[in-house]
Design a protein that fits this description.
alpha+beta, ribosomal protein, two-stranded antiparallel ribbon, ribonucleoprotein, Ribosomal_uL23/eL15/eS24_sf, Ribosomal_uL23-like, two-stranded antiparallel sheet, 2 helices, 26% helix, Nucleotide-bd_a/b_plait_sf
Length: 68
C-alpha cells in the first residue's frame, strides 16, 4: 500500500528526527517497454515520489551516517 503525506511526515521524524513542514506526493505511471528478444510488451510498476520540505536550518545527514 502507498503511504499518504501524514504517514511520510511521521516517518521522516521517526527516522531522522527532523520535523517535516510540507510533503508533496506524485504518482508516476510505469513505462511500457518491449523486450528486444521476444518483442513482448511488459509494464514497469507504478511508483510514488515524495518531496519533503524540512525546517529552515535543519539537515538530514543520510550520507554522513552511511559513511560509518
Amino acid at each position: 500500500t502507498w503511504a499518504n503525506a501524514q504517514q511520510i511526515k511521521e516517518a521522516v521524524f521517526a527516522l531522522f528526527g527532523v520535523k517535516a513542514i510540507n510533503v508533496h506526493t506524485i504518482m508516476t505511471k510505469g513505462e511500457i517497454k518491449r523486450s528486444p528478444k521476444s518483442r513482448q510488451l511488459f509494464k514497469k510498476p507504478n511508483s510514488k515520489k515524495a518531496y519533503v520540505t524540512i525546517e529552515k536550518g535543519k539537515k538530514i545527514d543520510i550520507f554522513e551516517s552511511l559513511k560509518g
